[in-house]
Amino acid sequence: MGSARDGAEVGERDAADEVARLREDLRLCRLELAQARAEQEEVLERQAKVRRSKVRAEKESDILAKALADVLFRQTRARARARWWQVSEGPRVSRLEWEQVQVLRQSKYFRPAWYLRQNLDIARGGVEPALHFLRDGHREGRDPGPKFDVERYLDKHPELRRSRENSLIHALETGDLPGGGSGS
Questions:
Q1: 25-72 pLDDT, tens per residue?
Q2: 182 vs 74, 107, 141, 175, CA distance in Å?
Q3: How far apart, in whole angstroms, are the C-alpha atoms of residue 83 and residue 110?
C-alpha cells in the first residue's frame, strides 16, 4: 500500500509542478499580451496622427489649388480681354476659347482645383486649368474632374478622336453627360 501512496504523492507533486509551470506560462503570456497591446496602442496613435496630418495636408492642398486656379483664371481672363499688342506674357486666348473656358468652369464636370492636384505639371507650369484642358488635356486623356471620364466618353464617341473636338465641350453641347445630368 505504501507504494501506491508514494505513487499518488509523486503524481500529486507532478500535477502541482505542472499547474505551477502552467501558471507561470500564463503569467508570462499575460505580460507579453500587455506589452503587445501597449505597442499596438502606440502604433494606433501614430497612425491616427498620420491620418490627421494627411487630412490637414489635403485640406491645405485643396485651398492652395483653388487659390492657384483662381489666380490663373484671372490672368487668362486679362489675356482674353486684352488686345493683341497688350499681351506680353502667356499665350493669346481667342474669344471662342475664352467662351469655352467659361463654359467649362461653370460645369459641374470640370473642377479646376481637382485638375491641378491631379496634374501637378500643369500647376507647376502656371497654366489656367480649363484652358489647358480645352487645348491639350482632353487629347492627353486627362479627366477634367472626378465625374467625367474622358476615355470612356471617347470610347462612346470615337468620332471625337479623329476630330480632336473637346470631349467635355461636346458632352455639354449635346447633353450627353454621365448620369444624364445637366452640365451646370
A1: 999 999 999 999 999 999 999 999 999 889 888 888 888 888 888 888
A2: 26, 9, 22, 7
A3: 28
